[in-house]
Amino acid sequence: MKYTRFEKARIVGARALQISMGAPTLIKIPKDIISPIDIAMYEFKEDAIPITVKRVEESQFREEAL
After folding, report:
1. Is 14 within 8 Å of 51 (Cβ atoms)?
2. What's the number of domains the chain is made of?
3. Which residues contact 26 (CB under 8 A, 6 or more apart)?
4. Structural domain containing residue 57
5. Distant-in-sequence, close-in-space partners of 33: CB < 8 Å, separation ≥ 6
6. Packing angle between helix 36-45 and helix 5-20, nearest 10 degrees?
7. What's 42's domain CATH number?
8. How many CB atoms lie within 10 A of CB 6?
9. pTM of the predicted model, to two decimals?
10. d(CA 38, CA 15)
11. What is the pLDDT of residue 31?
């Protein structure tokens, strides 16, 4: 699935918070990556983050806005 920049920021930010609070990493991380944000970005690039995005169809969004 192709994510928008906003979805990517939300996913990486949420995962970085989890890592900074002590959550284990989901894949083996190289020793040169230390920052929780960098670890989350690495996990995102490797498609290892089990977070899903639920999108609302545009037609449903317009009906709710009216």
Report:
1. yes
2. 1
3. 43, 48, 49, 50
4. 5-65
5. 39, 42
6. 130
7. 3.90.940.10
8. 9
9. 0.79
10. 10
11. 94
Helices in the chain by DSSP H: which ranges?
Answer: 5-20, 36-45, 58-65
* 10: amino acid identity, one letter: R
Residue tagged 């002590």 (tokens): 22
How many whole angstroms from its chain centre is CA 64?
Answer: 27
12 contacts: CB under 8 Å, gap ≥ 6? 37, 40, 41, 44, 49
d(Cα 48, Cα 58) in Å, to the nearest integer?
Answer: 28
Q: Which long-range contacts (CB under 8 A, 24 or more apart) does 21-26 make?
A: 26/50
Identity at 44, one-letter amino acid code: F
pLDDT band at 63 (very low <50, low <70, confident <90, very high): low
